[in-house]
Amino acid sequence: MLICSVAICVNGFPDFYQQKDLEKKLMDCIILAGNRDSYREVSNKDNKAFLKIGEHTILHIIMKQLADVVSIDRLLVVGPKDALEEEVEAYGSYCKPVLIFDQKDDLVQNILSVVDATGGDLPPDRYVMVLPSDIPLITTEEINQFIKLCDMNTYDYVGGLTDESALSRFYPTEELPGVQMAYFQCQGVNYRINNLHMVRPSAIHNIEYIRKVYSIRYQKKLKNIMELLFLLLGVTVKIPGVMGAYISLQLSRIFTTHGWTRGARFFSNRLSFRRLEYYMSYILKARLKMVTTTYGGSAIDVDNDHDYHAINTRFQEWSKMLVELESDGDSAP
User: Fold this and answer.
1) d(C-alpha 78, C-alpha 30), whole Å
2) Residue 294: how many other CB atoms lie within 10 Å
3) Mean pLDDT, to the nearest integer, of 303-321?
4) Do the Cβ atoms of 13 and 5 come closer than 8 Å?
5) Contact at 8 Å (CB) between 192 and 161?
6) Rounded to whole angstroms, how far apart are CA atoms 60 and 91?
7) How far is CA 261 from the centre of its chain?
8) pLDDT per residue over 161-217, tens digit each?
9) What pLDDT does 180 receive?
10) Count of C-beta atoms within a 10 Å radius of residue 182
């Protein structure tokens, strides 16, 4: 939970790296399609990227949306290389260069190995967009919205959030299944960390911390909660407020999950995003910012069999709803 809560002016690099407006820059997008480390199997499939929604795999659905994002130059897919090459070849062209890389042992190694392999003449402190391969409801419009919110002249890492008002669109009805996530509350608003990330890998100086936190990211498990508490003990010496912030986040999540509104609000009012961003920036030794996208698809991932069934059942309905929101130019509920 904590982990996800410089203008380049160098002669010789392409002009788009010298513009201040992020929307006008071309960047790479890394799609994480690996199945090692702490991977969780869904529907007896050893890789969620190849699960099908209707006639197409989730990976294909995501790549089609990314292909329409003008400011993304290349799609860099990392995972089981042979299977990925077969998948991409089966669908033909995506109207963008697609490079495929064999997976390493964990998420951090996957990202860093791809960045190193594709550096070429690009600036060593370039930033990349990173997202997973299990978010079939992501849309071109939401990706564009996220990119507009990313100020990479000021920050080294920008992570995405989605609030409950957007995610309530995907709740179950009396007749149909749906997806209902767990939230943490901050200043009276329920948030979910979504799956959109913009990162300058060379600027994250405590990247080992990301590796440790990712391995215990499922914070509903008591074992993982205790491990993260222990991990934070070393930070509290220099920033005593970190432990209190983490405990407040956990308690607000528990109270929100059980509908204890007064208790959730009490702890959420003790937090602010500015304070959380400061703590996370200190831990990572990088400049961090969280931003909120308003469509919801980026937070709906295929994390278990129930959610996969719900997304499969209502994919056409939800996709149509998102298209209507985009055409109306208003993603607010």
Assistant:
1) 7
2) 15
3) 96
4) no
5) yes
6) 8
7) 27
8) 999 999 999 999 999 999 998 888 888 888 999 999 999 999 998 877 676 665 555
9) 93
10) 12
Parallel, antiparallel or unpaired: strands 27-32 and 72-79 = parallel
Can you name the residues that pair with 56 across neighbouring β-strands?
53
Of 58, 298, 322, the C-alpha closest to 191 is 298
Which residues are CB-neighbours of 329 under 8 A, at least 6 positions away?
none
153 exposed, middle or buried (CB, 10 Å; 0-12, 13-18, 19+)?
exposed
> Which amino acid belongs to residue 66?
L
Of 326, 268, 333, 16, which is closest to residue 142 (Cα–Cα)? 326
Q: What percent of the chain has pLDDT over 90?
A: 53
For the chain, the 3-state helix, strand and coil shares in percent, each to the nearest 5, are: 45, 15, 40
Q: How far apart are CA 32 and CA 105, in angstroms?
A: 12
Token couple for 137: 């409801």
pTM of this prediction? 0.83
Q: Which two tokens stand for residue 293?
A: 């996208």
> Tokens standing for 285?
């030794």
How large is the greatest C-alpha to C-alpha distance in the chain, in angstroms? 61
CA 7, CA 79: separation in Å to the nearest integer?
31
Domains of the chain in sequence order: 24-204+286-328 (3.90.550.10)
Interatomic CA distance for residues 205 and 151, integer angstroms: 19
Per the CB < 8 A criterion, the answer to whether 85 and 100 are in contact is yes
Q: Phi-psi bin for 187: left (phi > 0), alpha (psi -120 to 50), beta? A: left
Q: What is each CA distance from 255 to 182, 249, 262, in whole angstroms?
A: 11, 10, 8
CA distance 199 to 185: 25
Please give the backbone phi and psi of residue 66, each rounded to the nearest 5 degrees, phi first: -65, -35
User: First-to-last CA distance in the chain?
Assistant: 25
